[in-house]
Design brief:
Elements: H1 19-24, H2 40-45, H3 50-59, H4 69-87, H5 89-94, H6 101-113, E1 120-129, E2 138-141, E3 144-154, E4 160-165, H7 179-188, E5 197-200, H8 207-215, E6 219-223, E7 244-250, E8 253-261, E9 264-270, H9 287-295, H10 298-308, H11 318-342, H12 348-377, E10 388-389, E11 400-401, E12 403-404, E13 411-412
Length: about 425
């Protein structure tokens, strides 16, 4: 049977409404709120019942676990904050590192204030292997990519003194200023004016940087590329005799040109050497080359030590990857501080095991106390006509028991008890 439609004429001054709409509309035609609340969380709870969610989460799992109402509310709070931090467009435009900036800043500040480095500090890059989705992922070599960090560490102890993430081109950087120079000055800012020396590679070292550091009572030692205009033209010749050395000096800096083999030349700029001396050996190495070979390996050795017992795991979120790297560096720094404070040379693996035990001890004790409290709340004997299974299970498999241990309040059968009604674990 076909539906029959009738045409309805509507006058401009009258609106035709159905019977249901006329009953639902309120005077004035404005929407109103049925539930009144004074706080934000109460408005949320009128839409989502925490008790219902809590019951359904426990009902769908076979494991006997319990999540408190406050713990569930805290989890939802973290989930909402994660969505705000991850999707907030204004925060991402101002700072690409905003998702983990707060905890990262506290970590770097604590590293700076907890340790006074020695005379020699090494600055180099660290490429943390990661396949996370972020806009500042760096590709170094074929098959090698990750998040890049600029690291300053102590030469003797390999303590991470300061660290900066590389987030790409900085729009706030003044025009004409080199990235390498700004990185070194930012990393060395807490340690300037103390007479220290910084060792860098050819990416950072320049004559202008040496003059800036020298004005802050800090020297530099590092290799230099032969392309920059700061290098004299006479030093760029390729054919040199093997084991020959040339020295060029300028205001506050000395350039050493050494040929370790045929058609290979090494350029080392130093502001801490006023006189260059060569060794009395067959290779005739100058003292600048020898000192550079000794001090250049700080960051490389630190990265090798961190990767030996790393906590890194697979993840697609870059804040988690940065947090893994922070845990590795914090564990290495804590080991260095422990050795200096106690004077004991303990193996790093033993220190990490003890650190893991102490960090988990509070949670283990709290869980044990909650479990004992639940045992104490249960009756001392099972219900009338019922028997419970032995919870000690020291000598039995699934024996039944009717009496609890006087110490741990576990049901204990006759095989698992001693003279008193006490299990063998609590003896």
């Amino acid at each position: 049977m076909k539906n029959r439609w009738e045409r309805v004429h509507i006058s401009p001054r009258h609106r035709h409404t159905t019977q249901m709409e006329s009953q639902q509309l309120r005077p004035g035609g404005q929407s109103q709120v049925v539930f009144r609340a004074s706080c934000v969380s109460s408005l949320w709870t009128c839409l989502v019942s925490f008790k219902t969610v809590q019951f359904n989460m426990q009902k769908k799992t076979d494991v006997d676990w319990f999540m408190g109402l406050s713990e569930l509310m805290a989890f939802i709070s973290i989930t909402i904050m994660r969505g705000i931090i991850r999707r907030h467009p204004q925060r991402a435009q101002t700072d690409k590192f905003a998702a983990i900036l707060n905890i990262w800043g506290l970590f770097v500040t604590n590293c700076i204030t907890s340790y006074i480095p020695g005379r020699h500090i090494t600055i180099d890059e660290q490429l943390f292997p990661s396949k996370t989705r972020c806009c500042f992922l760096q590709y170094s070599k074929p098959g090698t990519f990750g998040i890049r960090f600029w690291v300053a560490c102590d030469l003797k102890t390999k303590y991470v003194c300061n660290i900066l993430p590389y987030l790409g081109k900085d729009p706030t950087q003044p025009r004409g200023e080199r990235v390498s120079e700004s990185v070194v000055m930012r990393l060395m800012e807490p340690f300037l004016d103390k007479g220290r020396n910084v060792t860098t590679d050819n990416f950072f070292t320049s004559l202008s940087l040496a003059k800036q550091l020298l004005s802050r009572n800090t020297t530099i030692l590092g290799t230099v590329n032969k392309i920059p205009q700061e290098i004299p033209l006479s030093t760029r010749q390729m054919h040199r005799n093997e084991f020959t050395t040339q020295v060029f000096s300028t205001t506050g800096a000395t350039l050493t040109v050494y040929a370790p083999k045929w058609k290979k030349t090494v350029y080392v700029l130093s502001s801490m050497h006023s006189m260059i001396q060569t060794q009395d050996t067959a290779k005739k190495k100058p003292n600048t080359i020898t000192l550079y070979n000794t001090t250049k390996c700080g960051v490389a050795v630190m990265d090798q030590m961190v990767r030996e017992y790393t906590v890194r795991a697979g993840t697609w979120r870059w804040p988690v990857a940065v947090f893994y790297n922070m845990i590795d560096m914090a564990a290495l720094n804590a080991h260095v501080l422990y050795q200096l404070c106690t004077g004991r040379q303990e193996k790093r693996v033993d220190f990490l095991l003890e650190l893991a035990r102490e960090l988990a001890q509070t949670h283990v004790d709290m869980t044990k106390a909650q479990k004992e409290q639940l045992f104490r709340q249960q009756p001392s004997t099972p219900q009338l006509g019922k028997r419970a299974k032995c919870q000690a299970k020291i000598k039995c498999k699934d024996n039944h028991a009717t009496v609890r241990c006087v110490d741990c309040y576990r049901y204990t059968c006759g095989k698992c008890r001693k003279e008193q009604w006490q299990c063998q674990d609590c003896e």
